[in-house]
Amino acid sequence: MxxxxxxxxxxxxxxxxxxxxxxLFILMPIIKRLRGVExxxxxxxxxxxxxxxxxxxxxxxxxxxxxxxxxxxGPWPWYTSWVVMTLAVMLLSAVFLAKGxxxxxxxxxxxxxxxxxxxxxxxRTSWIYIGLxxxxxxxxxxxxxxx
Length: 147
What we know:
Blueprint: H1 2-21, H2 24-34, H3 39-73, H4 81-107, H5 115-142
């Protein structure tokens, strides 16, 4: 019974990991198409970006919750080096997601701001966040021992 629950939690954890990184790759072509479009089309693209960011954020919540359950139920203690490093990168990415995307998207409607610079920042933020997520994925799969 416990193994079935543990296996289900692992499955949910993997699915939430995919959902917390996969949609970000959709942002790249949207950001590219957002350059120089009319205001109405711009609103549509921005709402798609907001949906993607919300989906990534909620998938991240499931990822954290299932990760905590896996640590509680699994064989690894909290002080294992790969767990500590994963938590550190996760906290960094959570702050980065909140500041990097939300702040940038809020500035987009300010007429004083350069939209191309904002889109460049949004593109860079997306790639950095993807990089952080890939580091976490590597830590969770490889489980390296640093100490």
